[in-house]
């Protein structure tokens, strides 16, 4: 992946070695091990039909704000101490993350501008071992996650080693896919999609809530593919083998592969992110089209 000449983002918060801040319960969206959302009465997919209106409104020109309620959040400021010295390898990874985040900013700023809207850029927080956010306390083993409460992405750089060594998905574009997926969750928050899905989950049984979570995750995969398509067209970032790295990463974090690795058995009703085949399919849709409009996982009969 051609990244070294790219712009660096100013939206990086380096909390590595710092003290924890924030509070609450973790309800963020993660790349592989998400926090759960509480569910209750029956509801299901039919309760989020307004999502289609929101997507059409954003990407085809009318103002969707009439459909979106404000998202008011009270977040306690984080207590952050100066980061400890980092190795050259860690600093290079931080540099890479900053470039990829900046590239997603450039891409989505243009997408929103073309639709007559303004993109709100997320911050990305680097941490070591554990962190507190507006979504609560999380350990690095949870994996990267996005917190809608403070609209930030949280990443322990050690996850990239796990992605390569434990999940068998090496390569810089595989790492870029992880970041772009979490940015996809930010897009969903900005559009009001995440809020509508959470409301539908609260009216659903556990199986239906899981199915909604799968559709949300697959849409974030599709948005990651949209970024890759548009970034390559605009800035020629992809090299030979990069697409295979991205597809391999999407497959590596499929629920079926993770469950089989953990317990030797697969329980589809418990999926929260989608199977390897589903994740590859939706990432590929975005990657091949570059069109956010193809990412409507909620209208598909089967995601």
Q: Topology, pairings included?
A:
Elements: E1 12-14, E2 29-30, H1 50-60, H2 88-114, E3 123-126, E4 130-133, E5 136-139, E6 145-147, E7 152-155, H3 158-165, H4 172-191, H5 193-201, H6 206-235, H7 242-252, H8 255-263, H9 276-289
Parallel strand pairs: 1-3, 3-7
Antiparallel strand pairs: 2-6, 4-5, 6-7
Number of domain modules:
1
Quote the beta fraction: 5-15%
Strand order of the largest sheet: 1-3-7-6-2
Count of DSSP strands:
7
Report how far the terminal alpha carbons are from each other.
29 Å
> Could you give a short account of the major beta sheet?
5 strands, mixed
The low-pLDDT segments are: 21-26, 32-47, 60-81
Average pLDDT confidence is 82
Order of helices and strands: EEHHEEEEEHHHHHHH
Structure notes:
This protein is α/β, with parallel strands linked by helices and about 300 residues long. It has one domain. Helix content is about 45%, strand content about 10%. It has helices spanning about 50-60, 90-115, 160-165, 170-190, 195-200, 205-235, 240-250, 255-265, 275-290; strands spanning about 10-15, 30, 125, 130-135, 135-140, 145, 150-155. The chain has a five-stranded mixed beta sheet, with helices on one face. Strands 4-5 form a two-stranded antiparallel sheet. Helix 7 packs antiparallel against helix 9 (about 275-290). The longest helix is centred in the last third of the chain and has 30 residues, at about 205-235. The two termini are about 30 Å apart. The model is unreliable at about 20-25, about 30-45 and about 60-80 (pLDDT under 50).
């Amino acid at each position: 992946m051609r990244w070294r000449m790219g712009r660096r983002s100013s939206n990086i918060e380096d909390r590595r070695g710092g003290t924890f801040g924030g509070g609450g319960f973790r309800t963020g969206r993660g790349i592989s091990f998400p926090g759960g959302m509480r569910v209750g009465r029956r509801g299901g997919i039919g309760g989020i039909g307004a999502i289609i209106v929101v997507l059409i409104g954003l990407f085809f020109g009318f103002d969707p704000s009439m459909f979106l309620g404000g998202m008011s959040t009270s977040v306690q400021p984080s207590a952050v101490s100066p980061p400890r010295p980092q190795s050259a390898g860690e600093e290079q990874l931080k540099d890479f993350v900053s470039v990829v985040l900046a590239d997603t900013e450039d891409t989505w700023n243009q997408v929103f501008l073309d639709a007559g809207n303004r993109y709100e850029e997320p911050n990305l927080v680097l941490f070591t071992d554990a962190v507190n956010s507006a979504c609560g306390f999380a350990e690095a083993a949870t994996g990267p996650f996005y917190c809608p409460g403070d609209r930030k992405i949280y990443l322990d750089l050690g996850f990239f080693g796990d992605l390569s060594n434990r999940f068998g998905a090496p390569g810089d574009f595989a790492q870029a896919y992880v970041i772009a997926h979490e940015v996809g969750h930010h897009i969903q928050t900005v559009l009001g999609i995440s809020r509508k899905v959470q409301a539908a989950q609260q009216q659903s049984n556990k199986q239906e809530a899981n199915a909604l979570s799968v559709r949300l995750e697959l849409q974030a995969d599709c948005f990651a593919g949209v970024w890759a398509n548009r970034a390559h067209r605009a800035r020629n970032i992809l090299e030979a083998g990069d697409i295979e790295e991205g597809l391999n990463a999407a497959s590596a974090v499929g629920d079926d592969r993770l469950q089989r690795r953990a317990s030797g058995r697969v329980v589809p009703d418990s999926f929260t992110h989608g199977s390897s085949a589903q994740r590859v399919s939706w990432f590929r849709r975005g990657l091949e089209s570059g069109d956010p409009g193809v990412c409507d996982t909620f209208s598909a009969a089967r995601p």
